Each structure stands twice: as structure tokens, then as C-alpha cells.
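Database export, one record per block. Field names are fixed; values are copied verbatim from the stored entry.
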Amino acid sequence: MAGLKKYRTIITYKEYFEEFLSKQRQKVKEKIFWTFLLIEQVQQVPETYLKHIEGTEGLYEIRVQFSSDIFRIFCFFDEGQLVVLANGFIKKTQKTPRQEILKALKIMEEYYENKK
């Protein structure tokens, strides 16, 4: 799509996100990539798609819904407009599982540690 302004750039860190993505059906992958495009190209991303995780320092979740399944992909920002993908999971309960948040925080910590 030529001419569209990008407000953000999404990148992956190590293989955490790819492992999650490789297990998804093609239609789910398409919806995930559609959501990524939206996040990159919309100046004010609605919370429906990108939301800060309460009680964390800089951890966000990308929210993807496909039919009755809900997918969450943790991410964080680096240098303003760079969105770094961490881990993803299929949400089965109302509350985001604590171990998934902890895993994402560990990935974020590792990312910044390796960046030094």
C-alpha cells in the first residue's frame, strides 16, 4: 500500500512470537497481520486493538479476535515508534494469565539487557 503513513513499526524479538504464530491457522494469521497493519498505520490506535497492561511498566497487549477465539500478543515500545513483539497466547479466561504477563516482562527485560 504505497503512500500510507506509518506511525509505528512492528518487529519481532528472537523467536517468541514466531513460535506462537506458527501454530495458528491461516485465517488467524491473516487477522493478526491485519491488526499489525492497523497498529502501524493509525495514529490513535483504539484500545480494542492495543491496550496497556495495568500494573506493568510499558507492557501492552495487541488484541486480535477471530470468530469466538481471542488472541493476545504482548508487546512493548522501544525508541518511541518501534513496537517489539514478545509472546502470544490464546485467551481462554476473563483475566490474562499471570504467567503470560511474567513471561512477557522477562522477554522485555532480556530485550533491553541485550540492547546495551
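Remark 1: DSSP finds three helices and five strands in the chain.
Remark 2: The mean pLDDT is 93.
End of record.
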